[in-house]
Amino acid sequence: MTVKTVLVTGGAGYIGTHTMVELLTSGYDVVCLDNFSNSSPEAVKRVEKIAGKRVTSVTGDVRDREVMSRVFKRPIDGVIHFAALKAVGESVAKPTDYYGNNVGGSLALLEAMNERKVRRIVFSSSATVYGVPETLPLSEDAPVRPINPYGHTKAMVEQILRDWCAADLTCTAIVLRYFNPIGAHPSGTIGEDPHDVPNNLFPFIAQVAIGKRDKLTIWGGDWETPDGTGVRDYLHVVDLARGHVDALRYGFENTGYRNINLGTGQGTSVLQMVAAFERAASKKISFAIGPRRAGDVAACWADGSSAQQLLGWRAAMSVEQACVDGWRWQQQNPDGYRGQRTAG
Ligand code: NAD
Ligand code: UDP
To answer: How far apart are CA 84 and CA 150, in angstroms?
Structure first.
């Protein structure tokens, strides 16, 4: 069997690094394209070290035509498209940056794919496209009603991909709507590396545990949930990465457009997450209940049956395991990739 080559845009990022490890260990060759706007070349080196295989790394922007023609000079069998900006709050403040990078970047990528007749793409979408859930669990046929510019960029790219597949019946787009990825690779050498104050719960808790932040503010203790704190569907990033390998394989065997949720189907509250992290780190996490955060929903979790039926994928790792692995990454890399403590 010939080895397939996969282009991974945004491969140096949090989910991209974990996915590149799973692709390499599943026998794919990988080309990583990243402009390192939110990541570091060190992350790619660590991927190579875990997998014991080289990545072809290209530094550049998906919107740069010259870079894209260089990337597509080699035969590419399929693309996994992670490259995007992802902070919801920032997307409200800088909408044109978000539409430009996320929608403009996806269009530039599709144009380059069209030129080279590359017809397989796996796209990083998000549960945020559902907006405020009407019923739980969320299945793929729930209405798409984003409530912020970031969510709109994801919904727009979904529509573009739907039309792209309708125009050429040999094309495949697998759109993965992720719930809440957390944790890190069990080696402790790759993980999430936020450059500013983390917006997300998990990296914030990890930074409280390591002593970088005094305490966690829990955004609301009066939600309509069993303990009053927000409930989400947290999935281990290695499970999520494996879901991409399964989606890619499905994409090579099928044509057309598909939305697929990747989540565990289980809800975990903020207080439950704090308790799980405390057990993993054998430390107390200080917290205070604050006001609700604008734009938050009480609860959100996935109906994961499509992923199971179509891809044969289901989350195998627990929130507890994600806390153990995320804590290992945080301890070994207190300053993320900038510290480079586990490199070499
Ligand atoms: P990340 O910021 O760690 O990774 C994104 C990578 O893309 C970074 O390495 C960044 O440098 C690169 N990049 C951004 N714009 C680029 C451009 N124009 N050209 C080339 N490279 C570019 O984010 P992540 O958490 O790994 O997320 C990956 C994808 O998954 C994103 O599309 C994000 O919207 C989506 N997603 C993430 C989450 C989450 O909670 N992390 C949830 C749902 C969806
Ligand atoms: N959260 C919190 N404090 C924080 C960050 C998040 O209480 O510092 C809560 C948030 O209100 C939500 C849950 O943790 O109920 C998950 O938030 P996150 O931003 O990680 O994911 P999202 O809201 O995008 O699903």
So the answer is: 10
